[in-house]
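Appendix B, Record 12. Input sequence as logged:
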Amino acid sequence: MEELLSRLPQQPPFRFVDRIIEYVPHRYMISRFDSQPLQKLFGGLSEIPFTILIEALAQTSVLFIDMEVGRLSEGELPLLGKIECQMLAISNWTSFLCHVSPIRVLAKRAMLRGEVFDESGRLIVSVELAVAVTEGDGGVFAN
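Logged structural output:
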């Protein structure tokens, strides 16, 4: 699975997927993320920012789509297109499980449902998000 994780453009410390727990084709993917090592990078905040948990879901979504429709080709970039989020609880820095399942997958675009649970099983964040793959031909990222 380390080879799969290496496909993410984000790498530590900004890769928020430590391990794929389970992948069932066309059904779901569950990943694990241990946030505790990052707490110092965020000034020792007592509560984890929701944006980190949403990014963990987005990264898990990219891996799910990668498994569903094939690896990203050279020059392709994953994009988060749209997200609708419900923040349901506040959490400390701990381990989280990210659960992603498809609503609809079309070629290299998808609408997905995602949830983040803390290590006690409490639901922290629920989202619907759109991800897509685009050509990284420079564009806005050109030097």
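Residues 138-143 have pLDDT under 50 and may be disordered.
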